[in-house]
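I hope you will forgive my troubling you with a question about protein structure. Here, with my thanks, is the record as I have it:
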Amino acid sequence: METEHYSQPLLSQKNGSQPQSLPLIYTSQPYENDEDEVELGSLFAVARRKALMIAGVTIALMSAALLWAISRPPTYEGRFQLLVEPLTPNDGQLTGPSSLAKTLLGGNLDIEEAGLDYETQIAVLRSPKVMSRVVEQMQARYPDLSYNSLIRAEKLKVERFQETKIIEVSYADTDPQKTQYVVDQVARAYIQYSLQERQTNLGQGIKFVDQQLPRVRQQVDQLQGQIQRFRQRHQLIDLDIQSERLSGRTSDLEEQQLAAQSELDEANSLYARLQQQLALQPNQAIASSALAQAPRYQNLLDQLQEVESQIATESARYREANPAIQNLQDQRQNLLPLLDQEAQRVLGKKVLSSTASLGAQIPEDSIRQELAQQYVDTANQIRVLQVRRQAIAQAKNLLDQQVQQLPVVGRQFTDLERELKVATDTLNQLLVRREALRIDDAQQEVPWELLSAPEIPRDRVGQPVPESRHLLLFLAVGAILGLLSGYGAALITEMLNGVFQTPEEVKTKTGLAALGLIPIDQAVRQPLSAAKLDEQKLLLEQRHNPSPFSEAFDALSTHVRFLHSERLSRSLVVSSAMPRDGKSTVALHLAWAAAEMGQRVLLVDADLRHPQVQTRLNLPNSQGLTTLAATDVEVRSVIQRSAHVANLFVLTAGQAASNSTVLLGSKEMQGLMQQLQAEFDLVIYDTPSILGSTDTSLIAPYADGVILVVRMGQTNRSRTMLALDRLKAVHAQVLGFVANGVKQQPISYGSNGSGGRAQTARRAMSFFN
């Protein structure tokens, strides 16, 4: 590869100037920290990579299962079935409890037969309480039999037959005679248990009912007495009728109260008018009326009036001292005591004292006397109406209290009736159940029926037939266990290996975007000759011979160029977690591909400890990055231009420096990076591995982004995560990763020529986006 020095003018800034610092770019790429997490795609990838291991383990386990099945001694199984519930409620009984109860209660009570709890019943049949006696009997013939060998070893199985009312019992052993003996004894023990349990249950049921009947009868009698006393105390016949009666009486009293109030108002009005006309009080009117009807008092009153009339006549002719006038006044004085005595006789002293001035107000004519009598009658009527109104009000208040108490009384009566009904129903059910249990007990029927005799299968000549070995089943189980075990071993191997195998694993683990997938180059994989193949010639062959390798870098260049929608990436740092991941190869081919697409690209070898660019491109390395960072040499005199690609420029590492960390972390280096980024379309820095030194961490924050190279089958997961943590610590922006050494290329690349490469780049952009 021929080169020439770059002679185009650069920016006017020198190395010693102080350029403006670039802003730090913070990474926004999330990634997970759990090293053992894999996606479904990764699981399938593991299966593909470890197919031979999985197949070997599967075949081994299938063979072992088959050999074990063949080597087993033949097993003989005996079984029998028990019908533990009747097919219909009356099946096997003259009169079942349910039908008898319905008959005795007139068919109005719907009694449901509780279904058998099969799980509980099976647990009881398997319990030591039932099996202990039968085990003792069988041990006399077969001492090796025990409860543990039968039940806990699951050799004697007691199960419900599907969803039927049948319990199926089976026993398997290598000795057919022993198998037949066991099932015979167990069947006999279960039938005997069912009979004893049935009789015990019936006796306990009858005893329980007899114990409950006196208490329930007493409760019914007490409730009936309470209801009778309650009716008598509240005079209650029927709540609805009582409510209607109270409502009618309330309406009648309200009408009477309104009528009495109306009559009282009329009487008060008449009383007021008469009192105004007569100008008398009620007691005066009464006295006046009584005196008016007394003849002697009226005669004395007439004489008094006549004497007073004569006194008035004589007073007009004579003086008061005249004997005639004096005689008349003496008569008047004599009549007044007589008049008072008569009034006292008629009215009494107490009334007379309250009517001292009555003489002048006694009615003088019949009209006034009638008015006085009406006045007295009205006063009496008012008193009667007031008493009547008060009585009606009292009666209504009492009735209102009864109306208010009616809901409480009704609720109490309803509660008593409900309690009586519950107690009566309970009594009836107990009576019916007692009769049904007595009839059922009198029948003494065996409740369980043996549907099939306890036996083992036999052939035509009567020889026992062993169970099928089910070789296919054992093969299937061996295959399943083999697949699971083989895949588990593959996963364990993958986790112990600890390296990335597929780009999907890298995406899942780091959370980074896949910028490019670089396949394994066949030319690189071929062994070099003793004279060492010219690396520059190899590079030219890789670039000019269309292949998935070269076209992958075309796609990578296009993807990186348009990675940011708002701006182009002007400077990139290409690095890896550990050495030998292919970072220098990726940086060189990416720079070449970008230059071929028309960008002015500068490839900077920033690996000052182990530079690779000058060797790959066969360039002189007397001056380079160390020269620019440590001296005031002009930049254009150090940058070299490629003779094969017009737009590709190279800045080698220069002479080895012991203080590379100081040079790369200096402000002069930052100014140089800013100067180069302003001059070229794209600046690519080939830096050392991130964990090998701190050089990459010094440069990365001042570039537009970092491209992390990950070699499939070689790069360690935990080392990669540690490298990302270091980049995150310096606020470097990780744009994504490039998967190097991919065995299968997922993109179908184009044919020869630039048109094929452009089409490849477009397809790659759509794939990665």
